[in-house]
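Structure (tokenized):
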């Protein structure tokens, strides 16, 4: 039910609402708040991705409902509220690119990159029921940035809860991506394609793919994120793309080239040969290389 429907019912059945008003003295204030103060939320439900959230931001601005009356989320709510209108937001790459271009022009590349990192952070259904969801924090940070004389300074406003939330999400994603830049291991498949498998907590795949596309521009490679069931594919001399891998035949990913098998044996041999038995310290090793990275590294298999 939207505001216009409620107003129609009040006009169509005035006696019912008059009787309610007589029974409950505070009902006048209730109706005044709803009808005049605009306590009616439009909840935009986006896909949990950079493009999905940026599409939601575009639609929220274009709706003209007023920023105070809008919220963004990446999950369907478990309980629906009477005075909320739920709007599904399908991913639109054109809208997402417009938002990305505007953010880069008005806020700068650095702020744009940090917003993208925040959008890649891990979220759960429990976190979406908290006072600040990831998508809504990003949206409100953008609104604040556009209201400032220098929007590139928006992430300095850590006193604002939603800006602080974006900062924390960005840091979590950035720290994990930084670890993967050191711990990610490529291995050569039979056809010469470089392949790496990762199990990240956050959606760091776009950040890793962008880095390695710049570092290995003339290599064909694939980075497979088994946690989120998607992969980054890079063709030499071109840009990378991210695709879904739910129908992927993983058996083809175990066919290593002859050279790769030999190099892995040599690397494991070197790893074991420099080990000093008397100085083994598994606790320190797990602190320097957390266990969830170790299962994808040849020297720990």
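Design, position by position:
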């Amino acid at each position: 039910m939207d505001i216009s429907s409620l107003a129609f019912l009040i006009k169509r059945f005035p006696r019912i609402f008059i009787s309610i008003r007589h029974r409950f003295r505070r009902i006048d204030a209730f109706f005044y708040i709803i009808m005049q103060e605009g306590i009616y939320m439009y909840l935009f439900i986006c896909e949990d991705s950079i493009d999905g959230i940026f599409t939601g931001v575009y639609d929220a601005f274009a709706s003209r409902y007023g920023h105070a009356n809008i919220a963004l989320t990446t999950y369907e709510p478990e309980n629906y509220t009477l005075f909320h209108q739920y709007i599904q937001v399908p991913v639109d790459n054109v809208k997402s690119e417009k938002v990305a271009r505007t953010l880069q022009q008005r806020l700068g590349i650095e702020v744009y990159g940090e917003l993208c990192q925040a959008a890649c952070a891990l979220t759960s259904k429990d976190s979406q029921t908290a006072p600040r969801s990831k998508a809504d924090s990003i949206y409100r940070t953008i609104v604040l940035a556009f209201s400032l004389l220098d929007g590139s300074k928006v992430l300095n406003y850590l006193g604002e809860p939603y800006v602080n939330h974006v900062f924390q999400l960005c840091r979590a994603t950035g720290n994990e991506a930084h670890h993967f830049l050191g711990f990610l291991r490529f291995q050569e498949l039979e056809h010469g394609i470089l392949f790496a498998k990762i199990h990240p907590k956050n959606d760091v795949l776009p950040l890793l793919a962008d880095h390695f596309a710049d570092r290995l521009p003339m290599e064909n490679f694939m980075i497979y994120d088994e946690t989120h069931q998607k992969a980054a594919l890079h063709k030499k001399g071109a840009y990378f793309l991210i695709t879904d891998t739910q129908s992927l035949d993983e058996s083809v990913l175990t066919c290593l080239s002859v050279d790769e098998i030999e190099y892995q044996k040599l690397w494991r041999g070197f790893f074991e040969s420099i080990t000093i038995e008397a100085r083994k310290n598994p606790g320190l090793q797990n602190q320097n290389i957390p266990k969830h990275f170790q299962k994808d590294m040849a020297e720990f298999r």
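Reviewer-requested clarification: Residues 161-183 form the longest helix (23 residues). Strands lie at 41-45, 70-73, 84-88, 187-188, 194-198, 221-225, 230-234, 240-244.
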